[in-house]
Design a protein that fits this description.
The chain is an alpha+beta fold. It has 2 domains: 69 residues; 56 residues, no CATH class. It has 4 helices and 3 strands, in the order αααβββα. It starts with a helix and ends with a helix.
Length: 136
């Protein structure tokens, strides 16, 4: 029963991390209504630079919230043995990644999604960006 009680905060933290990550993706894609409205108000009132600064501040706050949720998940999952779930953000793609780790050896048993896939995704995005920059 104690393990179940410890798992509840992990589930709550996972839900928060998922919600924050979704809001962050929406904000980046420009479909997040509050971010769009705030961006319009800031642009109309004080110019485009201030609107961009406001958007960057919102993105940094969302990133901070995601990192806090990931840390909370990692702490909550430490109670399970002999394996542990670790949650992390992939550096290049900023996507949430889950690792199943053997606590005795520290060896990663499984990653979802795999790091190789996320590295490939980052390289593809980079190449598309270079192609677009070169074309323009």
């Amino acid at each position: 029963m104690q393990e179940v009680n410890r798992a509840v905060p992990a589930v709550d933290a996972a839900q928060r991390a998922t919600e924050v990550a979704a809001r962050r993706e929406q904000a980046k894609a420009g479909v997040f209504p509050e971010a769009r409205q705030a961006g319009r108000q800031a642009a109309g009132a004080a110019g485009m630079n201030e609107a961009q600064e406001a958007q960057e501040a919102r993105e940094k706050e969302l990133e901070r919230q995601v990192r806090m949720a990931v840390d909370a998940l990692n702490k909550a999952m430490e109670v399970f043995t002999p394996t542990q779930l670790r949650f992390k953000l992939h550096e290049k793609t900023e996507r949430l990644q889950v690792q199943v780790v053997d606590q005795a050896t520290g060896k990663v048993i499984k990653e979802v999604p795999p790091s190789e896939f996320l590295d490939l995704l980052a390289r593809i995005r980079e190449m598309v960006g270079l192609f677009i920059d070169e074309k323009a």
